[in-house]
Amino acid sequence: MSAEERRESIVRAAITEFARGGYNGTSTETIARRVGVSQPYLFRLFPNKQAIFLAAAHRCMDETRQVIGEAVRSQPDLTAHDAMGAAYKQLVGDRDKLLMQMQMYVAVASAEAAGDHEFGASIRAAWAELWDQAHLALGADIRETTDFMAYGMLINVLVSLGFGSEHRVWSGFGGLPEAQR
Description:
Radius of gyration: 17 Å
Helix content: over 70%
Strand content: under 5%
Largest sheet: none
Distance between the termini: 37 Å
Number of strands: 0
């Protein structure tokens, strides 16, 4: 495998491990073991644990932007809101990607509380890009964008907490993401 292919494997493994253990609860040794490389090799590709986490976080944000952007382009018969919403519900059906997203928010909040204001800067910037993309797709309507993003965060919480599709909290959403049923 080339270094770039190994790097890709590490990012994928990091998403899974950080999703399940969080930033503080995941060791670089665990990630290296999942990929089948040594820790020293891992650190030849990434300077530190924070860089691995940020690469995984950015991958999740990039994929979210790609998925909702493609949904709008490929489903012109749906409103942007409906196309993006359906695509997002499918995306968070992947539990590791959903939990990685939730872990990003926890890691940034923890770093901020500890006085590290730089750690979250690139994640905030990536989230702002997602906001901007949704905002433009929704006709630059601030209320529509706010509602869309708020519902997305609520869906994250409901799926993370394991509310089943039969629970009353899903009545306004058209159901649980397919992979979670």
